[in-house]
Structures are given as structure tokens and as C-alpha cells.
């Protein structure tokens, strides 16, 4: 009798039905954040197919926008029956605030779907396409049909594989601007040469490695193609657990049911990044989080942090957090402690990896943590739904979940050696590109504090602007700054007139169209260089220059950069023979700061739609926007 | 115990086949239940395996096409 691998935890208990009832009740009351919290707890307690299907039903039970879920169309192309992953994908998208609609190509027709520009794939207008092909299906000669090379059977030529994959990717990109996510290949489970395989130049392991190298090359040559480290995912869970030989042979469904959640979670990281839901700030507790023990009770020499267990687990955790900071994640502290006790650890403890200056904000006092989080969000000018709160204390976690349901709460497991893994597991801060701005972000917050101090010390605003010594650089979007431009459209919520999200490929496509003006704005001041912090995309439409995208990073609001950008647009419009400048405001819950942008620059309202969208017009023959006097401007467009 | 087993099986079928547990009777089968198609049947088998920590051979999948057969097959594994 075959054995079921990794059976799910015992069976649906009363606790699970209570959670289900809670989810249903919160959905009825349109409390999406609370429903998602309960859904997360349910998935953790009972990650079974029954739960996934229940959550799928919940996710599909209403009109997504009315709920607050972001609609997102995913196309799945596969060489196997990936339909069995639908429940997991929909459930995991739901708990990430996304209402996924799936287009599923026919069994093993991924080549036809990619090559035929009229295929269902392209007609479904996906926001993301996923190409999930098992190595075994693409190159069986490296897997089950492998034979040891000899004079009679030469090693399989790899050039045809490269040609084929490159051709498919190019045809895809020529037909669609959607981002494409491609699975790489997991090594074969059965090594037909046994222990000799790894030593053989043309053994299966090396062969699959070469296929992955080719795949990587082919993907790098086309814009907006992303790799999913399927090999890594399978390795992490273990191929013996990942694959279900019985279902593979019976239903062409090679992935074990218990692993589909892990796959869906991985997909969710990409979806989240694409809809602008990547988290931005990590808020950490201190006691039993950054070190073992309680500083206020055990003192500097009593807390556990150093080369021996469990201190070394906390050191590793701190290193992981530092790595996040270095790739653009903002760090903050929310701890109930005496500030002097905390300062002492940062200043004097020999094994602290993180420094005081690594954190953009310290909330160390005895008030509730929800207060700390609210203050952190306000001071850093980011939404509460972009915070991840990490604490070891279940009561604090529950307090924050209840008080601030939109904050992502990560309750650490009991063992400190599992902290690092649990922080990285969900990829909360993952993005699809890493720019210089990302890597400098933490430093930029330091600079912002300095600028804030200057403002408070300035007699009036004009003095403040002048004293900042701002240099504004306006450049067209080019291959070097393309990723940053796309990232800005995906992440900017507050000072964003239309909140249109664009992928690298979509913007690259506009670069080829002479009617589109795509301009980045970079700002440096006396405290440092902020890098590219603004973007405008406008289209020449007969005699009108129509603004499609106009946004500023939240760090640079309140310095009249928008006035300078609009002044620049007036000049360009004039140069191109346009008579009007037009702008659109699509109101969202988050873009209140930008609502009066056009009004205060002298535009007149032209159209007001029932849904609140407004279109504004500036007649260049009798109105103009002048450059603010305090910018030094450099432009190449 | 049998009542409990029947209750649990109906809960599983309810989740997978989108039926109310009360509507599942001794007559319920693939022939009279629209949502009980071949894809959902495989899902049902998987869900039963997870629920009861048991395992079926593919040859047994096709011997479970009605509520009563499901009940009998699950019982045989416990």
C-alpha cells in the first residue's frame, strides 16, 4: 500500500470551524483586514485542501473592488495539470489582499499559446503570465529518458533548447507587455548513473545545471522576464516531499497537494510586488526579539547576544535584518522599555550587529504598541498597511491585530533559531528590482530628518526652500533608470494622480513611441542625493499634452518639486506645439495630498465623472506655470 | 463512531463539492451531482486522505463514485 507523505495535521477541529465562522462574519461586515487575519491563522492551523477551497469560495464570493481586494489577472501556462494549484493560488492571493482571476491554458499547449498572437492567453489580457514547465517535460533526455553519452549516443545538443526558449520569449514580448514569470528546472530525483552522476561532465545534474544557465541567459535578454527559483523551492522542501509520483502518473499532477500552498505563496510574492503591496518598513520589538531576555531586568551582561547559543541565534537574526536594511527596507523600533536601558545596549554591547543609526524611528516608551506603530507611520509618511510588526509576545501581537488590522503582524516562533527563517519566509519586502535608491533608502531617511530640522528652524518657507540648495535633474526614461521608473509607479500611493501601475515592459514599450514623454525627476539637496523621486508620463494628443502619470515619492512632498515638473511640462508642450496641458485625478483612499495639484497650479476643471475622476485643463495661451526660483535645474529633455 | 465518520465525510464532501452537508444523502453520487466531476473527484480523494490520514491507490479512486462507496472505502482504511 502506498504511503501518504506528510499528512496534514489532524483534522478539522472546533477551533478551525470557529475561525471559519469568524472569517465569514468579517466578510459579511466588509472588514477585509480582519477577515484576512483570521484566514492567515486558519491556514497556519490547517493548511489542507479543504481550507484552501473554503478560502477560495470566500475570495470569490463578492465583487473584488467592493471588498478592497485588488483585482489581478494571472495566466497559467504549464506542461502539467496545474489546475490543482488554483485553490492554493486564489487562497494565498486573497490573504495578500489580491483577487486573482486565472486564465488556464489547455494541457501542455504552452508553446502554441505563446506563439499564436490570437490565443486565449493574449486575449485574457493578463497582469502576469506564469510559465510552469517541469524539466522532465521540456528536456526528457536529461530526466527519465537519459542515457549515458557514448560514441553511439552523443550528449544532447543544447543549442536547440536555447533557440526554442529564446524564440518563445521574444514572441511573447512582441505580443504582450505583461511581466512573465518562468520556473527554472529542478534537478532529477532519480540519478540513473547513481553516485557517478555528479562526477560526470554529461551526467544529469550538470546537464540540468546547463539548462538552467541557458534559461537564465534567454530570460535576461528580454525585458520584464522573471525567474522563479523552482529548483530552490523543491530543494527547500525536499524532492521526496515535493513530488507525488502517484498523481503525476495518474493525473499529470506532479506536485503533492501539501506543497501547493508553498508554490502559491511564492507566486503571491511576485503578485504582491506587481500591485504595489510590498511592505516598506519593518517594526521590531527588542526584548526576546533582537536579543534574548529582558534588558530592563537582566541588564547588559544578562541578555543573550553573542557567540554561544541562544545568543548566536539573535546575532544571525540581526544580520538578516541588516541585510533587509541594505536593500531598502526601513527599520523602526517599537519597544516597551526605558530609553536609557535601550541606548546602553546599542552603545555598549559588543555583539550588537544593528546600530542606532540603522533605524529611522525609535518608539521606546510604555504606551501601547498600536500608538507606536501609528506614530511611526505618521513620522515616516507611509501607510500602516506597509508595516510589518515583529514581536515574540502573543499578547502584543493580538493587541496590534485588533487595534490596527491593516498592519502585518509576524509573531515569532518560540525558538530563536527559527526567527530568521520566519522573517524571510513570506518575502514581505520582496521587490522585482533593486535600484540605487533602494540601497540608499535608509540613509535617505536620515537625510530627511536633517531636512525636517532645517524646516523647523527656518523663518519662512521660502527661506527653507532656498537653504535646502536643491538641484533638480530632469532626464528622459532610459534603459538605466527604467526599473526605477516602473518601481515608482508600483509603489507610490500618496502623491500619485492616477495610481496606474506599470511594468518595466510597458514603460519600455512607450519609450518607442514618439508621442510619449517620459521624464524622471531626481532631487539632491544639501543633505544628500535622493536619487530619482518623481515621474511624469504624458502623451501628445493633437494639440493637447495629456498627463497619464504624475507622481512624487512621499519623502519629497512639500518642496514644490511638483511645480517645477509642471513648469517643465509647459515648456515642452510649447516646444511641441501643444496648446493645452491636461491632467487627470483619480481619487483613491490614499492620494489625498495630490487632489488639489492641478487646481493650485491654475488649471480649470473640464470634466467631472460620476466616480469622482476629474480632468483638468491649462490653456497655455493665457496661463503658465513659472519655475520656482530656489531650484538649480539640470535637464536633458 | 459511525455517525461521527458520516458527519466528517459529509463535511469534506461539502467543502470540495460545494454542497450543503444536509443535501448529501445515501443516494448522492457522480451521476446526480453536477459539481462531482472528474477534477473534483480527484480533489475529493485527496481531501479525504488529508482528513483521515489514509491513502488510496489510483485503482481505488474509481470505486468511490457515490457517498455510500466513499463511506465504505474510508471505513476500510481506518
Q: Any chance you could write out the topology, listing elements then pairs?
A:
The complex is a heterodimer of chains A (637) and B (78).
Chain A: H1 14-28, H2 32-45, H3 49-59, H4 64-67, E1 70-78, H5 86-94, E2 98-104, H6 110-115, H7 120-123, E3 128-132, H8 135-138, H9 159-175, E4 180-183, H10 204-220, E5 225-228, H11 230-237, H12 239-242, H13 245-251, H14 257-274, E6 281-284, H15 295-298, H16 311-326, E7 330-335, H17 339-348, E8 361-364, H18 369-380, E9 387-391, H19 394-403, E10 408-411, H20 419-425, H21 436-457, H22 461-467, E11 470-476, H23 482-491, E12 495-496, H24 504-511, E13 516-525, E14 528-541, E15 544-552, H25 561-575, E16 580-585, E17 604-608, E18 614-619, E19 631-635
Parallel strand pairs in A: 1-2, 1-3, 3-4, 4-5, 6-7, 6-9, 7-8, 9-10, 11-19, 15-16
Antiparallel strand pairs in A: 11-13, 12-15, 13-14, 14-15, 16-18, 17-18
Chain B: H1 2-17, H2 38-52, H3 58-61, H4 67-77
Helix pairs in contact in B: 1-2, 1-4
Amino acid at each position: 500500500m502506498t504511503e501518504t507523505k506528510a499528512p496534514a495535521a489532524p483534522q478539522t477541529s472546533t477551533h478551525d470551524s470557529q475561525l471559519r465562522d469568524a472569517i465569514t462574519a468579517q466578510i459579511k461586515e466588509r472588514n477585509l483586514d480582519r477577515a484576512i487575519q483570521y484566514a492567515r491563522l486558519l491556514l497556519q492551523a490547517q493548511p489542507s485542501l479543504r481550507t484552501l477551497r473554503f478560502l477560495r469560495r470566500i475570495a470569490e464570493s463578492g465583487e473584488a473592488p467592493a471588498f478592497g481586494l485588488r483585482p489581478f489577472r494571472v495566466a497559467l501556462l504549464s506542461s502539467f495539470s496545474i489546475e490543482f494549484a488554483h485553490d492554493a493560488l486564489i487562497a494565498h492571493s486573497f490573504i495578500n489582499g489580491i483577487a486573482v482571476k486565472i486564465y488556464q491554458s489547455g494541457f501542455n499547449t504552452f508553446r502554441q499559446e505563446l506563439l499564436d498572437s490570437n490565443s486565449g492567453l493574449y486575449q485574457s489580457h493578463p497582469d502576469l503570465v506564469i510559465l510552469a514547465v517541469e524539466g522532465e517535460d521540456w528536456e526528457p533526455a536529461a530526466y527519465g529518458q537519459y542515457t549515458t553519452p557514448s560514441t553511439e549516443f552523443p550528449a544532447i545538443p543544447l543549442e536547440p533548447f536555447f533557440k526554442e526558449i529564446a524564440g518563445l520569449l521574444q514572441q511573447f514580448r512582441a505580443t504582450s507587455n505583461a511581466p512573465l514569470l518562468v520556473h527554472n528546472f529542478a534537478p532529477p530525483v532519480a540519478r540513473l548513473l547513481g553516485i557517478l552522476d555528479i562526477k560526470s561532465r554529461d551526467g544529469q545534474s550538470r546537464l540540468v545545471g546547463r539548462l538552467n544557465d541557458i534559461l537564465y541567459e534567454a530570460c535576461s535578454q528580454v525585458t520584464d522576464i522573471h525567474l522563479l527559483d523552482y529548483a530552490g523551492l523543491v530543494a527547500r522542501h525536499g524532492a521526496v516531499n515535493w513530488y507525488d509520483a502517484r498523481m503525476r502518473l495518474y493525473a499529470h499532477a506532479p506536485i503533492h497537494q501539501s506543497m501547493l500552498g508553498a508554490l502559491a505563496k511564492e507566486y503571491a510574492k511576485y503578485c504582491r510586488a506587481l500591485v504595489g503591496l510590498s511592505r516598506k518598513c519593518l517594526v521590531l520589538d527588542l526584548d526576546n526579539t533582537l536579543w534574548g531576555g529582558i534588558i530592563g531586568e537582566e541588564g547588559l551582561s544578562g541578555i543573550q547576544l553573542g557567540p554561544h547559543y541562544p545568543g548566536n541565534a539573535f546575532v544571525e537574526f540581526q544580520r538578516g535584518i541588516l541585510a533587509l536594511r541594505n536593500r531598502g527596507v526601513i527599520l523602526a523600533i517599537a519597544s516597551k522599555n526605558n530609553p536609557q536601558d535601550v541606548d546602553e545596549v546599542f552603545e555598549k554591547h559588543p555583539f550588537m550587529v544593528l546600530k542606532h543609526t540603522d533605524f529611522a524611528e525609535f518608539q521606546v516608551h510604555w504606551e501601547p504598541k498600536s500608538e507606536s506603530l501609528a506614530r511611526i507611520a505618521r513620522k515616516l509618511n507611509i501607510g500602516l498597511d506597509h508595516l510589518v510588526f515583529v514581536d515574540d509576545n502573543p499578547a502584543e501581537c493580538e493587541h496590534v491585530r485588533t487595534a490596527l488590522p491593516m498592519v502585518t503582524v509576524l509573531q515569532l516562533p518560540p525558538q530563536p533559531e527559527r526567527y530568521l527563517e520566519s522573517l524571510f519566509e513570506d518575502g514581505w519586502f520582496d521587490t522585482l528590482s533593486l535600484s540605487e535608491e533602494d540601497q540608499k533608502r535608509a540613509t535617505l531617511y536620515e537625510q530627511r530628518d536633517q531636512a525636517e530640522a532645517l524646516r523647523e528652524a527656518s523663518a519662512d518657507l521660502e527661506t527653507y526652500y532656498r537653504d535646502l540648495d536643491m538641484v533638480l535633474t530632469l532626464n528622459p526614461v532610459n534603459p538605466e533608470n527604467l526599473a526605477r521608473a516602473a518601481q515608482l509607479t508600483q509603489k507610490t500611493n500618496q502623491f500619485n494622480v492616477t495610481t496606474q501601475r506599470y511594468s518595466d515592459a510597458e514603460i519600455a514599450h512607450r519609450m518607442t513611441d514618439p508621442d510619449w514623454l517620459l521624464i524622471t525627476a531626481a532631487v539632491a539637496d544639501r543633505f544628500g542625493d535622493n536619487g530619482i523621486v518623481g515621474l511624469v508620463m504624458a502623451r501628445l494628443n493633437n494639440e493637447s499634452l495629456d498627463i497619464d502619470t504624475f507622481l512624487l515619492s512621499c519623502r519629497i512632498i512639500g518642496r514644490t518639486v511638483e511645480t517645477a515638473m509642471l513648469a517643465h511640462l509647459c515648456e515642452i508642450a510649447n516646444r511641441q506645439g501643444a496648446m493645452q496641458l491636461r491632467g487627470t485625478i483619480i481619487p483613491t483612499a490614499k492620494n489625498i495630498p495630490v487632489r488639489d495639484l492641478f487646481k493650485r497650479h491654475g488649471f480649470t476643471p473640464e470634466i467631472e465623472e460620476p466616480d469622482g475622476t476629474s480632468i483638468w485643463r491649462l490653456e497655455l495661451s493665457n496661463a503658465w506655470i513659472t519655475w520656482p526660483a530656489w531650484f538649480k535645474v539640470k535637464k536633458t529633455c | 463512531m459511525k455517525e461521527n465518520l458520516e458527519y466528517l465525510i459529509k463535511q469534506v464532501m461539502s467543502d470540495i463539492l460545494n454542497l450543503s452537508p444536509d443535501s448529501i444523502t445515501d443516494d448522492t453520487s457522480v451521476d446526480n451531482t453536477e459539481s462531482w466531476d472528474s477534477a473534483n473527484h480527484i480533489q475529493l480523494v485527496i481531501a479525504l486522505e488529508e482528513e483521515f490520514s489514509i491513502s488510496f491507490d489510483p485503482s481505488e479512486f474509481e470505486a468511490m463514485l457515490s457517498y455510500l462507496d466513499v463511506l465504505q472505502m474510508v471505513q476500510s482504511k481506518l
